[in-house]
Amino acid sequence: MRKYLFLTAGLAAAFASPVQAADWYLVGQSDDDLFFADAGSVAKSGTYMQVNVLDSMGEPIDDPAGDIYYLAGPIRLDCSGRKYQNLGNAALGLDHSYLADADVDSDWQAVNPGTHAEAIFDFACDAGFRDTPVTDPFAYADEYWDYGTSDDAPAEGPVIS
C-alpha cells in the first residue's frame, strides 16, 4: 500500500508540474481522445520500456472528485511480446489539477493494430510517431476540444481507433 501511495503522489507531482520541460508528441487521436507521449520519459526498465502518456478526452468522465478531462501516467511495454501494462493513472480536471487516482486495468494487455496502445508502443519501442511535437499538451488539447481557450484548432495528428 505504501508503494502505491508513493506512486500516486509521484504521478500527481509529475503531471502537476509544468509539462513544457518534457518532450511531448501527439501520437494519436480518435473521435473522443487525444493521446500524447513524452519522449524524454522513454526509458528501459529491465526487459521493458516505459513511457509517460497523457490522454485528453473530448467529453469528461463524471466522477465524485470532479469532471475528469485528462488521464496521465506511465505505461510499461513488452516490446518483444507486443504487450502493455498501465502502471497507474492520475485523473486531472479541466484546470489540469489532480483530482483522484483513476482506476486502471493493470493486467498485461495485447497491443492491437490501429489502437492508441499500438501508437504508444510504436512511439516507445520503435521511436515512431514523432512527427507532431507539442510544446504543451494541455494547451494543445484545450484548444483542440475548444474548452473556451481559443477558436483556432491545432493541426491533426495520426488517426487511430
Specify the helix fraction band. Answer: 10-25%
Alpha-beta classification: alpha+beta
Q: Give the count of structural domains.
A: 1
CATH topological fold name: Lipocalin
Strand segment count: 10
What is the mean predicted local confidence, pLDDT? Answer: 84
Q: N-to-C SSE series?
A: HEEEEEEEEEHEH
Shape: globular
Computed over alpha carbons, the radius of gyration is 15 Å
Write down the CATH class: Mainly Beta
Spans of at least 5 consecutive residues with low confidence? 1-11, 149-153
Percentage of β-strand residues: 35-45%
The major pleated sheet works out as: 10 strands, antiparallel
Named CATH architecture: Beta Barrel
CATH superfamily membership: Surface-adhesin protein E
**How many individual helices?**
3
